[in-house]
Design a protein that fits this description.
The complex is a heterodimer of chains A (368) and B (413). With 368 residues, chain A is mainly α. Chain A is 73% helix and 3% strand. In chain A, strands 1-2 form a two-stranded antiparallel sheet. Classes of the chains: A mainly alpha (368), B alpha/beta (413). Chain A: It comes from Roseburia inulinivorans DSM 16841.
């Protein structure tokens, strides 16, 4: 008893205080410090483990991501996919609907796109085929997104588990489709679809194969930004996210909002699948989504659902990924090396949010 | 701190720009040098400035890729290439990343680019179309001949020959077990852990089986698949299932040590793949058929150096020392195995022995020749069968034998 009294009398050495307000400049300064610190820590790790010069490793990453025109475009292409998924997740997460099923929604969209390419590749002009691909893959993603939403709205099922489980169902569907599409049979791979005719491939615009990827994703980004910020439906989403009771009190049909929002979210993720299949890989496999449905969650949260920040964050993550390929071949390091660097950077970046939201107050000298 | 960071970023950008400029300079010089040789064959390059690019499915921790890496190292040693003339990209999956890797290597000025995994092929083909002056070589694939591209090549080792020899080793072990009374002749059943149910694997296990059958007439075999090239757990599980199914010897066409480990625990002799398995199964591993990729890599790069065309389909076996079996494990193998192995290898080398000798096996009770004569599903093999044997890997480098012969049960789909 007496001991406790002694402790409680004395003020702790440091304590957390929630900040009321922080200036934008200060917040960014904290983030920059975090980046700088993480680079230092990552450098120490690199030296300790690999005995390589960390500056050279960093330069290798930069070279790998933006070292040549083609590398820049590959980085942009990957960035657009990640951005598209993050944008797709945004409405759902704003509503506090924990959609971790983007992976499955992408796969369904990608499978739909691949199916269109395989069955209609030579039967319609390419522009029409692309329109069909977008509509069908959007629908496929929409269906995959709306199933857990309906269950959530009417039976209050746990959407986290539901969307996660649907990922595995989607993977099995892809595996099933590969049985019909595999080339050569038995190999378990589909290979490049329509390699000769390029049916259903994104056309080359302005001399670049990935221009359409950029255009589509930026349009989606802009539309979602306007929708979330300025439309009534966008406002309803944030109200439902803040408090469902408030929403009900204000006369918002919560069920309708949940279902409608997940339709949008799923459809955008489905279209991201089409962008991957039609615009980049031209094939379908269970690894088509490649974990990007989960990475995009980090992108969305780190950017606090701000589309501009999402461009930055997805750009940063893809930059590190692309750089890693170069580091792996240049220094004979495993690609895991750059995963470590990315991990350290993310740790600091997410960690620094603490210092943006809270400040530490130290015990003042002489105080009792 | 901020200042330091901005300096670092500025430095990075400068270097990036300089590196970018360097790349374009490389490209233009590469274009110039190829223009000089537009008369069909490419201009001969010198060993000092040739650049070789390699795309691996895995890294050094995985047997199949490790074998390729050893081959590349051997090539570099044979031709005197230095490390910075070889650009290796590891863990490149079988999707658009393979294309990205290939064109990136092309832009870095590689004269010849190798890709090692079956699923890379369509992406390599795509890159080969865009860079007609760079040689692209793809292992285990089959599309080069049909693609009509002069710069696209397929290669494979006649690994079925090595599998046949390892089958002989297995058959002798079975004979020993029969003689010792451990099993009866009818119980001589081999279990085979396969990756995927298609020609490469089917050709492999058939040759293995025929090798075993050549010394142990009563042998039968059961094949089960893991549907993955490298899944340690699944391979171990499938091996255990096969053992539970009364298989007394296990072999594999999958890349990990999963099956040998399971065999070591169960005390069942086994034949591995790619690498010597005695490190994980000292009391079970007999031997492993293995590829010596260095032979091809040396050949292909030498062709580029000489300005000669590379074979569209390359497939060599014991005759060129491109395949071998790892040293036979004396602790497990039957007596006299080494002598027999030597005899069989010599026969394969001089062409007196053919692995797919049609007199040694039947399909649904009839010979392959009869089935072809009957027509129907088997008519398509007509081009492959002549002079009493199936000409595996002669029309194309990739294995083509995909018939399930009598004595083998495969739970294929």
């Amino acid at each position: 008893m007496s001991k406790e009294n002694v402790i409680s009398k004395k003020e702790p050495f440091a304590r957390m205080v929630k900040r009321d307000h922080i200036s934008v400049g200060k917040a960014w300064a904290i983030r920059l410090i975090a980046v700088a610190l993480s680079l230092v820590v990552a450098a120490l790790v690199i030296v300790a483990i690999t005995k390589q010069n960390p500056i050279e490793v960093y330069l290798g990453i930069i070279d790998g991501a933006v070292g040549s025109n083609r590398r820049i475009w590959v980085t942009i292409r990957e960035m657009m996919v990640l951005l598209c998924i993050a944008i797709g997740l945004t409405p759902a997460f704003k509503m506090k609907f924990w959609n971790i099923g983007a992976e499955g929604q992408i796969l369904m969209g990608g499978t739909a796109a691949a199916a269109m390419m395989i069955y209609f590749g030579e039967k319609m002009p390419n522009w029409l085929l692309l329109v069909v691909i977008f509509v069908v893959s959007g629908l496929a993603g929409l269906i995959w997104g709306v199933i857990p939403a309906i269950f959530k709205a009417y039976f209050n099922t746990n959407e986290t588990l539901f969307t996660l489980m649907l990922n595995y169902v989607a993977m099995q569907i892809v595996t099933f489709c590969i049985v019909f599409w595999e080339n050569p049979s038995g190999s378990n791979t589909v290979g490049i679809i329509n390699a000769a005719t390029k049916g259903g491939w994104f056309p080359t615009i302005f001399g670049n194969a990935y221009t359409l990827n950029v255009i589509i994703v930026l349009i989606i980004t802009l539309v979602v930004y306007i929708y979330m910020k300025y439309s009534k439906q966008g406002y309803e989403i944030s109200v439902v996210g803040e408090s469902q009771n408030t929403a009900r009190y204000a006369g918002i049909d919560v069920k309708k909002v949940i279902i409608r929002t997940m339709m949008i979210s799923g459809a955008i993720c489905g279209i991201a699948g089409a962008v991957i299949v039609s615009g980049a890989s031209h094939t379908i496999s269970t690894s088509t989504a490649g974990g990007r449905g989960f990475t995009a969650i980090i992108v969305a949260w780190m950017s606090k659902f701000n589309p501009l920040a999402m461009i930055l964050v997805s750009g940063f993550l893809v930059f590190m990924q692309q750089g890693s390929i170069q580091v792996a071949s240049q220094f004979g390091l495993n690609e895991n090396a750059s995963d470590i660097i990315t991990g350290i950077l993310l740790f600091f970046l997410i960690g620094c949010e603490f210092f943006i939201n809270y400040k530490l107050e130290f015990r003042k000298k002489g105080e009792k | 701190m901020k200042k330091a960071l901005s300096i670092l970023l500025a430095m990075g950008m400068t270097v990036g720009m300089v590196a970018g400029c360097g790349d374009t300079a490389d490209n233009s010089s590469a274009a110039a040098s190829t223009e000089a040789g537009t008369d069909g064959t490419q201009a001969a390059a010198s060993a000092a400035d040739i650049k070789v690019g390699v795309i691996y499915i895995g890294d050094e921790n995985e047997g199949y890729t490790a074998a390729h890496m050893a081959g590349i190292d051997e090539m570099a040693a044979n031709l005197g290439l230095s490390d910075d003339q070889i650009i290796e990209k590891t863990t490149i999956p079988e999707d658009e990343k393979a294309y990205d890797a290939a064109v990136d290597l092309a832009e870095q000025g590689c004269d010849i680019i190798f890709a090692t995994s079956f699923g890379h092929e369509t992406y390599i083909l795509q890159a080969a179309q865009e860079y007609p002056d760079i040689q692209f070589c793809h292992a285990t694939g089959f599309k080069a001949a049909g693609s009509g591209l002069a710069n696209m090549h397929n290669y494979f080792d006649a690994i079925y020959e090595a599998r046949y020899v390892s089958g002989v080793v297995a058959g002798m072990k079975l004979n020993e077990m029969i003689e010792n009374g451990t099993i009866t002749a009818d119980q001589a059943k081999i279990g085979y852990v396969g990756a995927f149910p298609y020609a490469e694997v089917i050709s492999g296990f058939t040759s293995f089986y025929l090798g075993a059958k050549s010394v142990c007439e009563s042998v039968t075999m059961e094949v089960q698949y893991t549907n993955s090239w490298a899944d340690m757990t699944a391979e171990g599980e499938v091996a255990n299932q096969l053992i539970a199914d009364n298989c007394v010897l296990i072999s594999q066409h999958a890349d990990t040590t999963g099956a040998p480990s399971a065999c070591e625990t169960a005390g069942v002799p086994c034949v591995g793949y790619n690498v010597d398995m005695t490190s994980v199964a000292p009391d079970a591993a007999l031997t492993s058929p293995t590829n010596n990729w260095g032979v091809y890599y040396t050949y292909a790069v030498q062709c580029v150096l000489d300005g000669k065309a590379i074979d569209t389909d390359w497939c060599k076996g014991f005759s060129e020392d491109a395949v071998r079996i790892t040293p036979v494990n004396e602790a497990v193998a039957a007596e006299g195995t080494d002598a027999k192995v030597e005899e069989v290898e010599a026969a394969l080398k001089d062409g007196s022995l053919h692995v797919f000798d049609t007199s040694t096996f039947t399909v649904n009770g009839s010979s392959l020749e009869d089935l072809i004569a009957e027509g129907g599903d088997y008519a398509k093999y007509a081009d492959y069968v002549s002079d009493g044997y199936y000409h595996e890997s002669e029309l194309a480098s990739a294995p083509s034998f995909d018939i399930i012969i009598d004595g083998i049960t495969s739970q294929a789909n």
